[in-house]
Design a protein that fits this description.
The structure is a homotrimer of 210-residue chains.
Chain A: H1 9-35, H2 43-66, H3 75-101, H4 109-131, H5 138-166, H6 175-208
Amino acid sequence: MGFNFLPKDNDFYHLLSKASDHVVKAAKIFRELVENWQLDSEKVDQIHAIEEEGDDIRRDIVDKLNHTFITPIDREDIYVLSSDLDDVIDMIQSRTDRMQIYRIKTIDKNCLHLAVILEKASIALDKAINNMKDKKNIKHVMECIAEINHLEHEGDRTIRKLLTELFAENNKMDAIEVFKLKETYEALEAAIDKCEDVACTIEGIVVKHG
Amino acid sequence: MGFNFLPKDNDFYHLLSKASDHVVKAAKIFRELVENWQLDSEKVDQIHAIEEEGDDIRRDIVDKLNHTFITPIDREDIYVLSSDLDDVIDMIQSRTDRMQIYRIKTIDKNCLHLAVILEKASIALDKAINNMKDKKNIKHVMECIAEINHLEHEGDRTIRKLLTELFAENNKMDAIEVFKLKETYEALEAAIDKCEDVACTIEGIVVKHG
Amino acid sequence: MGFNFLPKDNDFYHLLSKASDHVVKAAKIFRELVENWQLDSEKVDQIHAIEEEGDDIRRDIVDKLNHTFITPIDREDIYVLSSDLDDVIDMIQSRTDRMQIYRIKTIDKNCLHLAVILEKASIALDKAINNMKDKKNIKHVMECIAEINHLEHEGDRTIRKLLTELFAENNKMDAIEVFKLKETYEALEAAIDKCEDVACTIEGIVVKHG
């Protein structure tokens, strides 16, 4: 087993950047899928392929952590970042699968809005991670984090509106349909929240190394 | 970036005590809200305000952790304690919001009983945290922990009773109403369980430093 | 408080082996229960008894961690392993309770298939843990891990099939019954996933010490 005593900082940043790039790809295809929802869209397979690549990237990061004594940022932080980025993709993929299983027929405008928020949050995450490496860019990192926090609040308001409509007394929708939609909204909210968790970890790293 | 080499133990204990005091406040207002349930009660806003203050306290604790080399108790334990205390408040707040969204009409006596258990558990937690600092008070800390474990068991029995009634064959309630109540009970049980997690962390700290 | 400076490696391995043995016991009784489902089966009490013993084993492991400076494998890994093994038993027990509360009447063949997968995964886990100690047996450990990954995929396919049938348009089942079954399937899938988490932790340990 070989250990690197002098780690190339670039390696971890490069892998994390690859991971966040995959989150953007998954969120983009998911938003496109939701925009033009079809049960048998080939975009479902594309999301599965990205999820598998994401797993490989995460495995590469964990392997590298296990073989490196000194890391540019705390091991635990690298671990949490890669794990949370992978979780976002997993959540997108499992929600896509579930929407197929539930034979969701139409997706309303507000639900698309949640997918748009998720895509925007993933883009801001990716920018933050690509700027973490260079201390000169800390201001830009903090702007991305603020944007993600802002998007998370927008997501909160949107889901509140969606659920209030869904559970309104005059909604005559069948109970099973109500719970399919409720679960879909909550899953998208959870994916957006996970992006905020990543932003929070990045903020912690920047503060510690600031 | 300034580091404190000689931490004042009091600072962390003071912040944790502030955090647990906020848990008591949130649990107390929630119990009062449930006792006299009104969809548009001003107590909902009070819970939101406490939740925001709780976030600030948690941020203060994390900041202090990032700027202190030596901590009176393990960093990880302080981190987990502050995170779990914050989670209890978040759970109370998000349940309050959801009860509004669901337009819950009446709250039965057993559900109020869960809110009372949660309030009692939060008071025992607060006492435990306020007594952790002084080794002379360990016996009192352990009594609080035993009380929280006892309350958690009482919560288990209560929710079992509530769910058994809810899913009884002769219950003619509409499916959507059944699931709104089921989710409410489970959310309160989860908040009580989280109090037990905090008690468990406190017990671990006391054993390590005993 | 006494510390062991020279830990007997065997102690931790022995306790972890005891823990995984209890997972096998719980999964076996659960599979038998599901195979011949009866609301008032004495097997429910047997699962409760195993769950309590599992809690004791976990407490022994945490106590030993708190009193030992040097551990044969990383403290954090031992902690996560014992915690995840305990979680599998907790999940089996709480699902059993919930199936009673829901007054589940019949269990279909595919649901039994999930219980069989869970039992097989627990047996593979137990084998992996019993072979971890001796470097000569690493190949055998890796075979067990591969088997668990394979079982998890089989679980995924099974639950996908079960949910697709449950949410098929021609299913005239009552909404409450649909959600009872959905929750049962998801809980079994979560228990199988937790076994895979344990396998993943074991793999990480073997790689680090390989």
